[in-house]
Design goal:
Blueprint lengths: L2 E3 L2 E3 L9 E10 L3 H14 L6 H22 L7 E9 L4 E7 L7 H5 L13 H8 L2 E7 L3 E8 L11
Antiparallel strand pairs: 1-2, 3-4, 4-5, 5-7, 6-7
The structure holds adenosine-5'-triphosphate and magnesium ion (MG).
Length: 165
């Protein structure tokens, strides 16, 4: 159902019945201080959904994990590289977050997704596990030498009132 077209994720199947209600896209340098920037931006954008403050904290956490992965693993902490974040809110209340880097990519995605697997012994290997547990869907597309895209989706069924931002 999900495909990569010209290097971008496209919800081919879902688009037929899910319309994008709001959308934001931004790009930043691969600097550790931009982890906080990206998580705050996505958290602020997501706060227009019918969700709780706890939901927003979870959204921020998964963004931190994915962006940190791009900086640390994708780019080996090279600050001159770029990370792209694309966030969409669909008319059914779903939130889609795509975090994309153009770094070294992942050789073995299945292994990378295993809880506690890390290619770096100083890490716990739990980033993908958090992303998967806090979101309803997670997909990883990666090609060695070309980069990695992580697509995260969470459904927020309407609760009938808005969370305070
Ligand atoms: N954007 C990426 N580019 C290249 N490799 C990645 C990327 N994201 C994840 N990986 C690989 O997948 C592995 C697992 O990632 P995960 O976030 O689960 O754990 P970690 O980053 O190693 O540890 P933690 O997130 O707990 O600090 C990483 O160790 C790394 O080898
Ligand atoms: Mg990680």
């Amino acid at each position: 159902m999900w495909s990569v077209i010209k290097g971008r994720w496209t919800s081919l199947g879902l688009e037929s019945y899910m319309k994008v209600k709001n959308y934001v896209r931004f790009e930043f340098n691969s600097l550790p201080e931009n982890v906080a920037f990206a998580r705050s931006c996505v958290g602020a954008f997501a706060s227009q959904l019918d969700c709780t403050l706890e939901d927003i904290e979870e959204i921020k956490l998964v963004v931190s994990e994915a962006v940190s992965n791009s900086i640390i693993h994708g780019y080996n902490n090279d600050p001159s590289q770029k990370i792209e974040v694309i966030v969409s809110i669909f008319d059914n209340g779903s939130l889609e977050i795509i975090i994309k880097d153009f770094g070294k990519g992942i050789e073995n995605i299945e292994q990378a997704l295993e809880p506690t697997y890390s290619s770096d012994p100083s890490h716990m290997g739990l980033g993908f596990t958090f992303m998967r547990s806090f979101m309803d869907e997670m997909e990883v597309i990666s090609e060695p030498g070309k980069g990695t895209s992580v697509r995260l989706l969470r459904h927020f069924p309407s609760r009938g009132h808005q969370a305070m931002a």
